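Service request form, structural biology core

Requester: graduate student, group of Dr. S.
Request type: structure prediction, single chain
Budget code: on file
Notes: please return the result as structure tokens.

Sequence provided:
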Amino acid sequence: MSNLDEYGGGQGPSPDVLVVTTNDVPGHRVDRVIGEVFGLTVRSRHIGTQIGASLKSMLGGELRGLTKTLVESRNQAMERLVEQTKARGGNAVLMMRFDVTEAADLGTEICAYGTAVVIAPAG
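Core staff response, request fulfilled:
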């Protein structure tokens, strides 16, 4: 696995469902708005990662274990967002955002959300 995959994410070149953070997709029109969709995951804290992060935070620097966990969590939330969109008949998500919150001091909740739509090439 490359550093690109470990410390980042996003869609490949030809996704089944296009996910964008913009209001529209250049060169496409929105034929139908399906509505809000989201993908959610809650990750508990791994005790080994927490201890390592606590030690690292005293010395300074990136908390690589936590970074990898957050990347995995965001990617899982995105996968679930795409599944929800496909299940509702959409082929795109507009205005996608992430929301990250603490879940009752037990872990971290990551939610990917946006507006599911059906788009088609303009013209």
